[in-house]
Design goal:
The chain is α/β, with parallel strands linked by helices and 594 residues long. The protein has 21 helices and 22 strands. The longest helix is centred in the middle third of the chain and has 24 residues. Bound molecules: adenosine monophosphate (AMP).
């Protein structure tokens, strides 16, 4: 991808900042505060203190003692004023002209976050850095292609005339993305018109047509989140015959109705009957094999699959491995958010289940709130900051003070005007690379399932579902997707887990799954409440095939983009519950605690 020299330069740069991570962090904080000296938000807490004249260390302790921890809600009034067109320096000295929408699928509603050229620059930087590490282990051919399932959504104007859209959309529209496309030696198969078409089914079809057309040159397959590749390959199972016809004739299916998308694709493809016949033959065999090994069969020169496969993407990993035929390496992509990039995967050979993200200390100023799981009758430490009842907290520590094995919530101070902003992600320090921590992503912090004294996070639910779905493996049935809801509409309240499955399975096995999920929640509060019947039997609802696709389409219809979509693992959203309940075809109640 990158030339060897620029790759090695990137790695050299990173090694240097990793070696001095503590110092680099203090300098990063100073830079942010110097850049934004005197903005309304900082003035409120720091007054007129002249940060230029302060030593880095003194500034770090002054800053953390005077500026409070903040949630998105604390900064929202400022961001709203910016969105409404106020131009005085509120959060940053440089005027903010663009706002990003975080995907909203993790917290249930979309949030505006400032986006500046710094955001695109760091995206390009982390892209180059990760690619430098990848090409050391999996070198790709110069002039090769990437089959990228990427999608941008529409940008729109806020009341004050600012450009708004998702961070990925802004990035795809930025100079930095164009620069990346020009500077790297490996290119996305699809042109801009396909990426930004605004209709994910049409874009996916074209991604495939171009990906097949260039199949011999495809060096790797990627998307932001693993879900996107799985969803795309799922569509491929329906599209392949039509795709073969188009390949053979150099035509484009009438399902592509967006004129500029049609033109851009037709300009790039020529009839290739030989290729079409070979793809058709392969697909006929693959269909018999339930599409096992589809990726290496159709893209024989692909070296790996690259995507975020951790956190809420982990449940799609099995399916992705199935499509990759268990042979092709799965490379887990980096860790970041709309608010800031955080860590890079510098060990591409590591299995996605064990991947760590090495913090890049120039991206933002990072703090870490030590977290301890609540244990009943066991006061682990004082609760500080009132961040919720899921964990007990200690005071935040700087990056240089984190400890291996400890879990933390990440706090960001960014170049884009977020100060001591609680991101809401829980990470665990797995080790260090030189002086900078390597993080395991654990989950979103927000408690997702709770009725009374029980506390289960996204990770707990994921593990329970993983255990509970094991009986499905024996009958070749696949869990396609899942979500949950803590139902308190009747007493006692109870957990509902919604499953979409593919394959035939009898009710006895599903009943067993339901019991196994219930038994797999080992949180003390849950177990005690279940035994006392202050939480009722867990309910497992099986939904019709395609229900989760409807949910995704519901989100996309409301402005989320396919590139950032994550299935909510727990929902109280009435529209979603309506879809789920409407398509529930079977219900099971646990007998675990009878
Ligand atoms: P958004 O800003 O809405 O696109 O989502 C950002 C969130 O996605 C982060 O705060 C994490 O919760 C999650 N996320 C991003 N990267 C990763 C990753 N590599 N592994 C697990 N979760 C991730």
């Amino acid at each position: 991808m990158e030339t060897t020299t620029s790759s090695e330069n990137m790695i050299g740069w990173f090694e240097e900042i990793a070696k001095n991570a503590g110092k680099v962090q203090r300098e990063t904080l100073k830079k942010i505060l110097e850049m934004n000296h005197g903005v309304e938000y900082l003035k409120k807490w720091l007054g007129d203190i002249d940060v230029d004249k302060m030593e880095d260390e003194a500034l770090q302790s002054l800053y953390t003692s005077m500026v409070p921890l903040a949630s998105h809600a604390d900064l929202e009034p400022y961001i709203q004023r910016i969105a409404d067109g106020e131009t005085c320096p509120l959060l940053t000295k440089q005027p903010i002209t663009t706002l990003s929408l975080s995907s909203g699928t993790t917290e249930g509603r979309q949030k505006y976050v400032p986006f500046t050229s710094h955001s695109s620059k760091t995206t390009l930087q982390i892209f180059k850095l990760a690619s430098a590490y990848r090409s050391r282990v999996y070198p790709t051919r110069e002039g090769g292609k990437i089959l990228e399932f990427i999608y941008s959504s529409k940008q729109f104007k806020t009341k004050g005339g600012l450009c708004a859209g998702t961070a990925t959309t802004h990035y795809f529209a930025s100079q930095e993305f164009k620069l990346k496309q020009q500077q790297t030696n490996t290119f996305t198969c699809s042109p801009e018109e396909v990426i930004s078409g605004g209709d994910y089914k049409q874009s996916t079809y074209c991604h495939f047509l171009l990906g097949l057309f260039h199949s011999r040159d495809v060096e790797f397959i990627t998307s932001t989140f693993a879900f996107c590749i799985v969803q795309a390959l799922n569509l491929f199972e329906d599209y392949w015959k039509e795709l073969c016809d188009d390949l053979s004739n150099g035509t484009l299916s009438p399902r592509i109705t967006i004129p500029c998308m049609r033109k851009s694709v037709l300009d790039l493809v020529n009839p290739d009957t030989e290729l079409a016949n070979s793809v058709r033959l392969k697909c006929e065999v693959l269909e018999e094999l339930e599409w096992y090994g589809l990726i290496p069969k159709l893209w024989p020169n692909a070296k790996y699959v690259y995507s975020i496969m951790t956190g809420s993407m982990q449940p799609y990993l099995e399916k992705l491995k199935h499509y990759a035929g268990d042979r092709l390496p799965m490379v887990s992509a980096d860790y970041g958010s709309t608010e800031s990039w955080i860590g890079v995967n510098i060990d591409p050979c590591c299995a996605p289940e064990n991947v760590t993200f090495t913090v890049v200390p120039t991206f933002s100023y990072f703090e870490f709130i030590p977290l301890h799981r609540h244990r009943h009758g066991d006061e682990v430490c004082d609760e500080v900051g009132g961040g919720g009842e899921d964990y007990l907290e200690d005071n935040p520590v700087p990056l240089s003070k984190v400890k291996i094995g400890q879990q933390y919530e990440i706090v960001l101070t960014t170049f884009t005007g977020l100060y001591r902003y609680r991101l809401g992600d829980v990470v665990e320090v797995a080790g260090f690379y030189k002086e900078t921590p390597k993080l395991n992503f654990i989950c979103r912090r927000k408690l997702i399932l709770t009725i009374n004294i029980d506390k289960n996070t996204e990770k707990d639910l994921q593990l329970a579902v993983q255990k509970g779905s094991q009986p499905l493996n024996n009958v070749r049935t696949e869990l396609v997707d899942f979500t949950s809801h803590a139902d308190i509409s009747n007493q006692p309240g109870h957990y509902i887990v919604y499953w979409e499955i593919k394959g035939k399975v009898n009710d006895e096995i599903l009943g067993q799954c339901c019991n196994d999920i219930d038994a797999a929640f080992v949180d003390h509060g849950y177990v005690v409440s279940r035994k006392a019947n202050s939480i009722g039997p867990l309910e497992l609802c099986i939904v019709e095939r395609g229900t989760f696709k409807k949910i995704m389409e519901h989100f996309i219809g409301n402005g989320a983009t396919m590139s950032q979509f994550k299935t909510p693992r727990c929902t109280t959203n009435q529209a979603l519950l309506k879809i789920l309940n409407l398509y529930t075809v079977k219900r099971f109640y646990s007998t675990t605690y009878e």
